[in-house]
Amino acid sequence: MTRAARLAMISLLVGLCVLALKLVAWRVTGSLAILSDALESIVNIGTAAMALWAVRVAARPPDAEHPFGHHKAEILSATAEGVLIVLAAVFILDAVRTGLAEPAMPQATWTGLGLVAVAAALNAGWALVLIRRGQALRAPALVADGRHLLADVVTSAGVVAGVAAARATGWWWLDPLIAACVAFYILWAGWRVIRASASGLLDESLSEAEQAALHRIIAAQGDGAVEAHDIRTRHAGPARFVEFHLVVPGAMRVEDAHGICDRIEAGIREEMPGARVLIHVEPEHKAHETGALVL
């Protein structure tokens, strides 16, 4: 099992523990806001399960049907997570509608609120681990899962404050109001996850910093070539794809041109481990007058 898969498996276990804590807290308090928080945790379990599937599929080597690999499985998973987050918000808003029609004052016991606080602390610690390790492993599914958990932490804190305020003031409507705020915050978090995933699905180019590093490497390792043009990049989950045309003197031997390509590829892979590099060698009469990286 890969490191990413192990992290996803732990996320699933953490999600089950957090859900159990929140369900007990809801039974103790009868709070609609805490119920909404528990509903979001059910989504956390679903997203953790999808992240586990995604990192396992993405780790598969290329095959005849998927010659470029299975990296986009993680992007699909992150997109599905965003959709589930939005659905959770819809369910919470439906519960708010019911709560407004049948008002009830929650029982703010220290036990119930303490359980929610423990669940929030558990989520916060694990979310930071997921984001840090997910970025290091270039695993979008894990990063999306971590950001979702951070959103859950914020909502849990608001829920605890809202339930306590409702009991202290006697304003029963604070409970469904906080639940509605949780729902809208979740909607925003879900939209962020979906938007971030869209860049991978649409083959967005590498970041400006990565492209600058790429140009610097080509210039440093391309000694003997004339220029590089039509430099194109894209990313798919943890994978980076780079392709460009390398113009060399027409009299250069194929072996020498191949040596330049080897140097450039080695430099790129040192900067971007695992990058897939495709270089098309051309004679100097194919040089571009504008828009090329002159070597």
TrEMBL record:
Classification via InterPro entries: Cation_efflux, Cation_efflux_CTD, Cation_efflux_CTD_sf, Cation_efflux_TM, Cation_efflux_TMD_sf, CDF_Transporter
GO biological process, one term: intracellular zinc ion homeostasis
Similarity comment: Belongs to the cation diffusion facilitator (CDF) transporter (TC 2.A.4) family.
Transmembrane segments: 41-59, 75-96, 108-129, 172-191
Gene3D superfamilies assigned: Cation efflux protein transmembrane domain (1.20.1510.10), Cation efflux protein, cytoplasmic domain (3.30.70.1350)
Domain Cation efflux protein cytoplasmic: residue ranges: 207-284
Keywords carried by this UniProt record: Cell membrane, Membrane, Transmembrane, Transmembrane helix, Transport
Localization (cell): Cell membrane
One annotated GO molecular function: ferrous iron transmembrane transporter activity
UniProt domain Cation efflux protein transmembrane: residue ranges: 9-202
Record protein name field: Protein p34
GO cellular component, as recorded: plasma membrane
Organism from which the protein derives: Roseivivax jejudonensis
Membrane topology per record: Multi-pass membrane protein
The keyword Membrane appears for this protein: yes
Pfam families: Cation_efflux, ZT_dimer
Gene that encodes it: fieF
